[in-house]
Amino acid sequence: xxxxxIGFLWTSILLxxxxxxADFGAGIxxxxxxxxxxxxxxxxxxxxIGPIWEANHMWLIIAIVILxxxxxxxxxxxxxxxxxxxxxxxxxxxxxxxxxxxxNYDAIKDDMQMVYNRIFAISSFITPxxxxxxxxSAVSGQIDLSSHDFLNAYIFSWFSWFSFSVGLFTVAICxxxxxxxLIGETKIKEEQKQFRKMAVSMNIAAVICGxxxxxxxxxxxxxxxxxxxxxxxxxxxxxxxxxxxxxLWYLMMQGKTIILxxxxxxxxxxxxxxxxxxxxxxxxxLKTGHLSLVELRGHDKTIEALGTALLLGSVFILPALFxxxxxxxxxxxSSYNPDH
Length: 340
What we know:
single chain, 2% strand, globular, 2 strands, two-stranded antiparallel sheet, disordered C terminus, mainly alpha
């Protein structure tokens, strides 16, 4: 049952990156869209993420609950030593959701719409940035459990070039996912062309930020290269991600839309697998030691109950979620007018 729980944890992180990440990416695209096209882009973004944007955070909640219930030592360590970036990330989620609701459902359209738009776009950038910072800090070996002063315990545990480079890479990945997903959300050729250009830009940004991750890891003596290329699974995942990226760009130029989403999702899954497989089950790498999902699991009865709850919950939640997506996809042709 332990490995079922770990499987749900990994899957929930992946789905949050794919779905919640694309959700954040929509705001990132809006942030970097020119003023001339921004209004039309907002209409398309609303049609794409409006129906299910709140549901995407379900995966983050599941991951947090799994850690809290099944791995309390790991949860408490991350919550204490990474509480600053975690708090900023959560504030970004709240600010983004609030701005999205007010700008689309406010009964009065006035100058405040500009404020809501800026909050939505900026928080869409900040949230995945600090999500990546948390992820990078967790495996960077920066967390020092023996620290007794504020700076070493709560600032230098996450404030580093490596953590910020992982954060920027996460932002670029989110923007890339959103751009690829949005190509199929509009029938306007000019807008599809715009999203393709944005996908190219975000792809280039992801490559540059990925290079920064490797460079900063080397300077900080973090074995990222070994994690990825140190075993056959990691190498296979990298090759699969590369092939899927080439196929994605080929099909994009052929005008395909639906299959692009699966290829983009598969690529991100392979990247996550290549990074995590070599140091599994160590989910947190400390300055001295590590936190293992196997060694620091909760009581066996707790893990058994948690695994059972996750299995039963998926039977009810997943069909309902798929139906939610399906039902709103059926209404995709209905237009949205922000002036109503």
